[in-house]
Amino acid sequence: MKKIGLFLFIISALYACSSVPITGRKQLNLVSDSEVLSLSLQEYKDYIQTAKKSTDKNATALVVKVGQNIAKAVELYYKSISADELINDYSWEFNLIDDAQVNAFCMPGGKIVVYTGILPVTQDETGLAVVLGHEVAHAVAKHANERMSQQVAAQYGAQAVDMLTGKASEKMKVITQQVYGLGTQYGVLLPFNRKQELEADHLGLIFMAIAGYNPQTAIPFWQRMSQNGQSVPEFMSTHPSDVTRIADIQKELPEAMEVYKSIWGKYPAGYTPAPGATTPGSSNTSTPKTSSQWRF
């Protein structure tokens, strides 16, 4: 066990050089982006070929419109920090699937699926922006890569070197299926851990703000979500409790509102900042400060 632990520490030091945009959190990254994209794209194609796409043209058009607005916000963000190359391999796609589940999910590289069952909860365009901002954030933060890397380290220990050198493609396929819950849990939110979920909320608020959607609407949206069915106790769940999620969003709102103002020239209607409000963030945060960087 000690040898395995030392081995993982060494390969972590060698490969865990990526960090999440905006939050600056360091990530374990043992799997190449190209391998993640290749495997996940095949899983996505298999799914989308059998999924029942919604015939509601208006609702479908709205999902695509909001999704493209959020994606454009992501591109503008990366352009503002001179890191366009980090999303060169993203090919954004937004689908509305006819399914009563109150849900949505993302795949690496920008493949996003929304279920019709969540539309009564989103209620309008801005509510939908909360969902798509959150899902796009999962893709941009490469949470799937991180989960797959964690699975490699946990399941194979020293054998992880095979994964890094491309000698275990079949094992990687198994890991991909485990990460996405494919086969037995198609259509559920991906089992990201609580840290990743809260991080996606945070990034989603920023991307919403850049796209011109009021980040404040995230709170009533998640309040409505909390009223849909029974919540699983947080210690038993991969997702944060509704109370935890809403509390974290409230803490992050001032940052998102300042980003909104810096880009759009004013706060959203009805928002009054605390006296002397400034954009929070550490030295690792790459949140934009001037509207001149942003142009739709």
Overview of this structure, please?
By secondary structure, the chain is mostly helical. It has one domain (2-291). The chain is built from eleven helices and five strands; from the N terminus they run H-E-E-H-H-E-E-E-H-H-H-H-H-H-H-H. The protein has helices at residues 2-15, 33-50, 57-80, 119-122, 125-140, 143-156, 160-164, 169-180, 194-211, 218-226, 242-264, and strands at 18-19, 26-27, 93-97, 104-107, 111-115. The strands form two sheets. The protein has a three-stranded mixed sheet with strand order 3-5-4. A two-stranded antiparallel sheet has the order 1-2. Strand 4 and strand 5 (111-115) form a beta hairpin. It is globular. The termini are far apart.
Task: Give the key terms.
296 residues, mainly alpha, 3-stranded mixed beta sheet, two-stranded antiparallel sheet, 11 helices, 5 strands, 53% helix, globular, disordered N terminus, disordered C terminus
Q: Given the structure, what is the number of helices?
A: 11
Described by the principal axes of the CA atoms, the overall outline is globular
Radius of gyration: 19 Å
Distance between the termini: 53 Å
Oligomer kind = single chain
How many discrete structural domains?
Answer: 1
* Element pattern in H and E: HEEHHEEEHHHHHHHH
Strand content: 5-15%
From the helix content, strand content and strand pairing, which structural class follows? mainly alpha
Task: Estimate the helix proportion, in percent.
Answer: 40-55%
- Main sheet characteristics: 3 strands, mixed
Q: On the 0-100 scale, what is the average pLDDT?
A: 76
DSSP strand tally: 5
Q: Uncertain segments of ≥5 residues (pLDDT<50)?
A: 1-15, 180-191, 232-237, 279-296
| Main β-sheet, spatial strand arrangement | 3-5-4
